């Protein structure tokens, strides 16, 4: 499977590589939901820098709805390459997620993504939009 994950310092980190489909994301999320070592909701970083995401635009709303129902994830932050189709899909996801009350953002660098998560946890408010967003 082109998606792997690890749990480190109260952060769930996904790493996707190569061609990734929405069903592969669902499979990974189901594994997380069944993992007894992870106590939701959990902050999540999704590294898409080496991935090509194959998700039809019209399906993004369905993904967000499914995530809203299971509430495994708390805040979600994505990292993707500028100008890539994956980055565009990530932006669309964040817009839809915000509409249903999810806190998510996409960045171009891991440093900015981690700073966004840290800013939220320190201040307890909504993190500022920084970096590549």
Q: What does this 3D model show about the protein?
A:
The structure is a single chain. It contains four helices and five strands; from the N terminus they run ββαβαβαβα. It has 133 residues and is α/β, with parallel strands linked by helices. The protein has a five-stranded mixed sheet with strand order 1-2-3-4-5, sandwiched between helices. Strand 1 and strand 2 (11-21) form a beta hairpin. The protein is globular and about 35 Å long.
Give the SSE layout.
Blueprint: E1 3-8, E2 11-21, H1 22-34, E3 42-54, H2 60-70, E4 73-79, H3 85-99, E5 104-107, H4 110-123
Parallel strand pairs: 2-3, 3-4, 4-5
Antiparallel strand pairs: 1-2
Helix pairs in contact: 2-3
Q: What series of H and E elements makes up the topology? A: EEHEHEHEH
**Strand proportion:** 25-35%
Based on Cα principal axes, name the global outline. Answer: globular
Count the E strands: 5
Q: Largest beta sheet, briefly?
A: 5 strands, mixed
Subunit arrangement of the protein: single chain
Structural class computed from helices and strand pairing:
alpha/beta
In the predicted model, the low-confidence regions spanning at least 5 consecutive residues are 125-133
Neighbour order of strands in the largest sheet? 1-2-3-4-5
Question: Into which percent range does the helicity of residues fall?
Answer: 25-40%
Cα radius of gyration in angstroms: 14 Å
Give me the number of helical elements: 4
pLDDT averaged over residues: 83
